[in-house]
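Deliverable D4.2, example record:
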Amino acid sequence: MKISESQLEAKLLKDKPNVFIILGEEPLRIQELANKIYHSLAERDFITKDSYLVTQKMDWAFLSDSEENMDLFSNKKIIEIKMIDQGPGNKGSKAIKDYLSKSNEDALLVLVEGLDKRSKSSAWVKTIENKGIMIDLQPLTGKSLYSWLGDKASKLGININQDAYDLMLEKTEGNLMAASQELKKLSLLFPKEEISLEKMEQSISNSSKYSIFDFSKAFVNKDKSKCLKILEHLRVEGTPETLVLWSVAREVTNLYKIKSSGTSKGVWGPSFYISSLEESSKNTDKKVIESCIKKIALIDSSIKGQSKNNPWIEIKDLTLEFIG
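Output generated by the structure prediction step:
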């Protein structure tokens, strides 16, 4: 069943579904909905979560293994499948359809970032939609974007005028995760206050000299010393590990697409950014990129508290492996 994001909480309470797919362009909005689903499933005794990040050489045996390993004493678990700018491929599509053709105690949550319109009509998407809940998040623009930001600001106890919003969006380059972080900082600097353009300028001028976008640029350009310096600044400044990992995942995924296809067609960004990606792709072994993709899923689990590893150390190690 296809529903809107505003209908999710009611559906979770009433129907108690076990199968979900969330599609969208912004990882923050996808993750926020996923967190609501995790919370609901936890209340229904889904104890553990296995997370998988899809690659072209993905081994989909984990879905059939999940069915075979079920017994009377097994804990119910969540199987989370993440896809970034790609679908599951023929093998993955078949594996998902085969899995859903049988009765399963586990919950299946598929999170898809950046899937094109045509792929959203694929048989595997329709199968999930027919078996459970589907939410296709539309990009936030104009009034919907300001409404989303306004709701975030209201929950933090601040009110922001139009000019201040415009400046924040310009400086965060439309990245919702970065904008959300800026709102949290504003709520600490100016609690329960009206945020004017002047206060927004003050907040931005007090920001760290390094941003997540500076890290992305240094990462793609394989500037080891600058990467490590920026990472440490971001850690000290309290930048969420999720935001840093999102940046790494985006660059690694784009590099993988270019390395696999031999072209940057379909990768969005300014010409200087595309040129940097193309150059980095030429100088990076495909096996290194594939290894980074696997490690991103493990770091994501660490951030969510599913392992005792330090996410900052893991991100640093991944960066060093990529740069070589």
